[in-house]
Amino acid sequence: MPDAKQPKSPADRLKDEEQGQDVDRSRPSSAPGTAPWVIPTMVALLLLGVAWIVVFYVAGYMIPFMSALGNWNLAIGMGLIAASFVVATQWK
């Protein structure tokens, strides 16, 4: 039998619940969930960054503001991709 001072494992808690025993729920068994905005924002930034770079290489010379920016378009695309990685650090 486990020592009363040590926390029970999730499997032991499940067994206790199935047997109808009282389960201590004062401490959460895992970290809180991911905020709902994290994953869509991360994916959107990543896809926008990739799309920006692809459009720059395929048709950047025909789009006036892109041709004016020149190679700074690569910095913008890579910045968007880097921002998606920064947002990804919030994913739990």
What does this structure look like?
The structure is a single chain. The protein is an all-alpha fold and 92 residues long. It has a domain of 62 residues. The protein contains 4 helices and no strands. Helix 2 runs antiparallel to helix 4. It is rod-shaped, with a radius of gyration of 24 Å. The two termini are 33 Å apart. The mean pLDDT is 84.
Note the topology.
Blueprint lengths: L9 H9 L19 H22 L4 H6 L2 H17 L4
Helix pairs in contact: 2-4
Which short descriptors sum up this protein?
mainly alpha, 92 residues, 0% strand, rod-shaped
Short description:
The chain is mainly α. It is 59% helix and 0% strand.
Total beta-strand segments: 0
- Please tally the helical runs, counting DSSP H or I stretches of 4 or more residues: 4
Radius of gyration: 24 Å
**Which percent band covers the strand fraction?**
under 5%
SS-based class: mainly alpha
Mean pLDDT level: 84
Strand/helix succession: HHHH
Range of helix content = 55-70%
Low-confidence stretches: none
Net shape: rod-shaped
Could you give a short account of the major beta sheet?
Answer: none
Q: In whole angstroms, how far apart are the ends?
A: 33 Å
